[in-house]
Design brief:
It is built from two helices and 14 strands. The protein has about 200 residues and is α+β, with helices and mostly antiparallel strands. The protein has two domains: about 35 residues; about 140 residues, Lipopolysaccharide (LPS) transport protein A like domain (lipopolysaccharide transport protein A fold), CATH 2.60.450.10. Strands 1, 2, 3, 4, 5, 6, 7, 8, 9, 10, 11, 12, 13 and 14 form a 14-stranded antiparallel sheet that branches.
Length: about 200
C-alpha cells in the first residue's frame, strides 16, 4: 500500500511541477510586458538630447596663473560646450577671483560668461559685479576680458561705490601696466563722481 501511495504521489508531482513552472514563466512574461522601459529613464527626452548635443560639466572649479604671475580662481554653476564648438565654453552663475601679483584682489561675478580660448577672450554678461580689495564695488551689463593677462573692459556704463564716493562713467578699463606697477582703473565717457567724505 505504501509503495502504491508513493508511486501515485510521484506521478502527481511529475504533472504538478511542470504546471507550476509554466505558471511562473507566464507571470514573468506578463509582468515584463507591463513595464514601460522609457519610464525607467530618470531624464526627460529633451534633457537627454541636450546632454547628447552639448558637453556639460556641473560645478566646475579651476585655478591658474596669468603670464604676469596673477593667480586666478574660477568657479561656475554649469559649464557647457555649445553646438560642438572647439575651445569655446559657456558658463552660468560664475565667480572669478584674481589675486594680482602686486597685492590687489579683484572679484568678478556674473550670471553668464562666454569663453573663447583660441581668441584669448572672455565676455561676461548679466548683473556683472566688479569688486576690489582697494574699496571699489562697480556694476556693469557687459565686461570683456583677456584670459592670459589682466585686461578688463566695460564698453558700456559703469556705476558703483569707490573709496571717494558714488561713481558713474560711460566706460571703464582695468589693466596692469607693463612696468610691474599695480593695476589701474581708468574711467571715461562722461565720468561723474559724487564725493562722499569719510566721517
Amino acid at each position: 500500500m505504501a509503495s502504491d501511495r508513493y508511486s501515485r504521489l510521484v506521478s502527481w508531482l511529475k504533472v504538478l511541477f511542470p504546471l507550476m513552472a509554466l505558471g511562473i514563466l507566464s507571470t514573468l512574461f506578463l509582468l515584463s510586458r507591463a513595464i514601460d522601459p522609457e519610464a525607467q529613464i530618470p531624464f526627460a527626452d529633451k534633457e537627454i538630447q541636450d546632454r547628447l548635443r552639448d558637453q556639460q560639466v556641473t560645478g566646475p572649479f579651476f585655478t591658474g596663473t596669468t603670464v604676469d604671475g596673477d593667480q586666478i580662481m574660477f568657479s561656475a554653476e554649469k559649464l557647457t560646450t555649445p553646438d560642438g564648438q572647439i575651445a569655446a565654453n559657456e558658463a552660468e552663475t560664475i565667480k572669478a577671483v584674481v589675486d594680482v601679483a602686486q597685492g590687489t584682489t579683484i572679484t568678478l561675478t556674473a550670471a553668464r560668461a562666454l569663453f573663447d580660448v583660441a581668441k584669448d577672450h572672455a565676455e561676461l554678461t548679466g548683473d556683472v559685479l566688479i569688486e576690489t580689495s582697494t574699496g571699489y564695488r562697480l556694476s556693469s551689463d557687459l565686461l570683456t576680458s583677456a584670459m592670459s593677462s589682466l585686461s578688463l573692459t566695460s564698453p558700456g556704463p559703469v556705476v558703483g561705490n569707490t573709496p571717494a564716493g558714488i561713481l558713474n562713467a560711460g566706460s571703464m578699463t582695468l589693466s596692469a601696466p607693463k612696468d610691474g606697477a599695480p593695476p589701474q582703473l581708468i574711467f571715461t565717457n562722461g565720468v561723474k563722481l559724487v564725493y562722499r567724505p569719510k566721517p
